[in-house]
Amino acid sequence: MEKLLQGILKFRNLVRPSMLPQLEKLAHKAQPRMLLITCMDSRLCPTSFTQADPGDMFIMRNAGNVVPHNQLFGENQQSVLSERAALELAVSTGVKDIAVCGHSDCKAMDCLYHMYDTTDKEKQDSETSWVASWLRRYAQSSLTKFEKLGVPMDGSSKEKDNLEIMFDKEKDMSDVDKLSQVNVIQQMQNIKSYGFVRNKLNEGSLQLYGLWFNIGKETGPPALRPIQEDETMHNLINLEWVTLESRVKETEFLRMPGIGNLRYKNKAICKEAVPVIRRNTEICKAVDWGWIVCICAALVQFVVLGIHNSFGILYIVFLREYGWGQAFTGYIGSMGLGMNFFFGPFTSALCDRFGCRNVAIAGGIISVTAMVATSFVSSLVPIYITYSVMWGMGSSMSYVPTFLMVDRYFERRKSLANGIITAGSAVGALVMGPTINALVESIGWRHTMRFLGVVTFVMIMAAFSYRAPPVEREIEKRENKVIDLTVWSNKGFVVWALALGIFNLGYFIPYVYLPIHATYHKIPQSKASFLIGFLSVGSLVGRLFFGHVSDYRCVNRMYLYQTALLIMAVTTTLCPLATNYGGLILYTILFGIFDGVFVTLIPIVTGDIVGRNKLSSALGFLYLVFSIPIMTGSLLAGFLSEITSTYNEAFFFSGAAIAVCAGILSLVPVLTPTRRQGATEINMRSNLLREKKKIPSFFETHIIFTGNPSQIAYYMQFLERETDV
Asked: Could you give the CA distance from residue 528 to residue 516 in angstroms, rounded to a whole number?
């Protein structure tokens, strides 16, 4: 009692003052979302192992986490137990989830297991025991189901047919613990026997879960693997209340302690499953919808970077029509692309606040307005407002959400998904360059800008696919910060941003000056306009190929990144030596292939460095860093070209900047902290080594079964788990 009183005093003096605002709100109204039914064992402290706050959930505890079946006393009879009353209160209050939680070394289950294996005196004592009477009347069905599963009390073997679940093939758990797990499943069935619960389950407004704790034992996460050849269906047994046969299409199994292999529909279910999961069927749909989002994001990139990277065509037109200097005219495109990245933090903050869909739609509207407005200007200066600023901001609000949506939908194959969406920009540059050149020659640049206004309308339509995933993938509640400045405390990210900032001093120079460099060497403009297209073809191949390759565990993404940049630096430095059309085509293809590595892996490696929880803010700041060198690099190259009357120095400058970046990146793995939430290890290998989140607890959690028949059974360990990036 003394310890209890000391705890109360500590709470009143140290804890309660910081909780007063929350407690004041709860004093007027509490809206718990969950009912947790668990054992009264002193080793289980629900608010500790769930990290629940006051008002989060109802808690019902008894010996053996038992909920009597409704048939034992009838739906309309007056006989009422506290468990039934608690269920009715929770459901009527509007809880969304009910979870039954068992545990290892359960004394109630031990009593149930040995109830009929006793001496005459022990049997007489058990008949007068309230605990034994409680278990004999209301938990007998668990013992019956346990025996049916192939562990009979008399030690005899039983034929296992109608086969679905392998039961403890390794035989590394006690029979009492196995009974405890079966008891969890049986209590979920008992809960469903109540009409008011069953109605809510059928409506989809209530979900039912089972959890099981292994006290004092640490084990690794479950291993995913296909069924082995020697594991025939004769090794499996049927749980008659599990109706999965008509729903399972893939033969995939999940290793479980106690209940060995559990069949499930899609690997992504287990990969995505976390304690806050709502409906497994929605997860399967979300995985499929993720590819639709990926295609729509690729369309947005097709438009955004297709137009930005084709500015070299408009550059020649503006240079001839308005007669301004090369640097000032070329800066229109550089500033527009720079603004696309400059507004990155602003766009990321808006996405966190209002959602990616709303931000992308607004960006599309601004982009359409910018293109149409540009077609009516009469001098070069207003183009800086309509094209550089408005189009830059609108494209940013459409461009940044593409990466954020892919990150939210994909766990596995994330690099491939990013390769697909960034391939859209490569195809855009391939198509838009010749298209814009043909339109300018046939209908003039003003009507061309109006046509581009129609094209940018596609971004608005694509943005309607950006619906939020139906489940949250994080256990912790993420702080709702508009801008997270803590990413700058990560030294690896600081070096990463600095290196890519230097890289962008020279990155877009070939996109701007390659067509006019070709015309300087007497190559017709019609052919010169195709050079950006060849570059885009190479980039398309590189993005798809390296996006797929970088998902392999054996690939070190940082080494791949550095190698690609060095090749880009060498080819760009040697580009002035190519004075004929064939040589320039060779350069554009080589540059484009390894450019695919740079573009595809930016969000992936950034997530490796800072963790997925901070990816939104990190990308925003990274694009802000990009904007400054993008806007100044081409301007410096333009001044060099005016001074020397050639474009060779511009390419030399570009190659040098890219080479310096490749060297600086060697510091990133050294300076990146080893603990980042939702991040891979600092060697940047793809999903090879993952950071384990250590929690000071002796408990291990397993979600062993979902009670709604429309759901697929699954298992998840979440107090000691690996974070998949």
From this structure: 8
